[in-house]
Amino acid sequence: MDTMGILFIVIGIQGVFLAFALFQKKHVPSTLLGILIFLIGIDSLSHVPFMKKHLFLINHGNLFAMGPLLYVFLLSINAKRNKIRIHLLHLVPFVLFKLAVVIVDLASVPVSVQFGKWISYIMALYCLGYSFGSLFYLIRKSKLFSKIDVRYLYTLIGIFLLGWLFSIVARIVESSDYGIGQIIWQITYIIAGLFIYFISWSMIKNTKILVPRTYVYDKNPDFEQRLKQLFDEDKMYLNPTLTRQDIAKRLNLSNHEISYHLSQHLKTSFTDFVNGYRIEEFKRKLEKNDNPNYTFLGMALDCGFGSKASFQRAFKKKTGKTPSEYKKEVQKII
Predict the structure, then answer these.
(1) Which of 315, 310, 317 is nearest to 327 (CA)?
(2) Domain end point (choices 211, 230, 259)
(3) Does the pLDDT at position 290 exceed 70?
(4) Could you tell me if residue 304 is left (phi over 0), alpha (psi between -120 and 50 degrees) or otherwise beta?
(5) Which of 108-124 are b and which e, b meaning 16 or more Cβ less than 10 Å from the residue's Cβ?
(6) What confidence tens digit (pLDDT) does each residue in 292-305 have?
(7) Does 91 lie in the same domain as 120?
């Protein structure tokens, strides 16, 4: 067996084992990355002469999934679980092409070598496009991630992007100079191996993105103090368009970390936490009674609520009373 064959086997086996290690984490980003690594491993093994025939149908067309998987992996890091499903639509072209491959194979439809080459180019350019898309997404949304996460993700995307650039160059060169083309293919698969090794190293180092959230989030013991400072002193809750992302930026945390701390440590949701402060502000204004002609809606809007309906709903949920009922109680006390 030549050097390339050994390289394909090593990368393939390591990829498959790493993929199953990622699946064990039962964590959406890890699962998506695991599927990507698994496909890379299968693609590598499919180039081994004695395995090519057995893996052809399984492997052919998988390139259509690799770019989208990296992109959806990025989106999943800060997305709610129920929002991830919509992002899986990026995999529709892969599913359609895979079905076409199966139909063509079962029907024994002849496919020309030239047509196969054009499909190969299209798949490579498709993945390269998604690689750049992932890079641009990270540039735009870098503030959603911690500095450590951003460095990790830039490296991950950079290796992936470099691999696809080399694969396209290899496709172009091998048509005119097969020898040099094979050398470039070797470099391409070495980069694929580097991609796998980098993720393996990340798991060993317990990179935040690839470990259960509790491991990292519990390392922010001052979270509650810092959050209360933003609300007690800066009064961020008065902003009617306040989002979890705004808080994440100020605390240099991700959206997931904010949600985790609120649910696990403070036993509340982001909306209920913010509305709690707004309701207390409303109560203070009501008790001061500086302007008897001031309406509930006027005070609610000043306290950060965006509408009458959202205010009444939040007030009833928090106090068990309507604003009018609460006002009557306050007047009795006064």
Answers:
(1) 315
(2) 211
(3) no
(4) left
(5) eeeeeeeeeeebeeebb
(6) 677 888 889 999 99
(7) yes
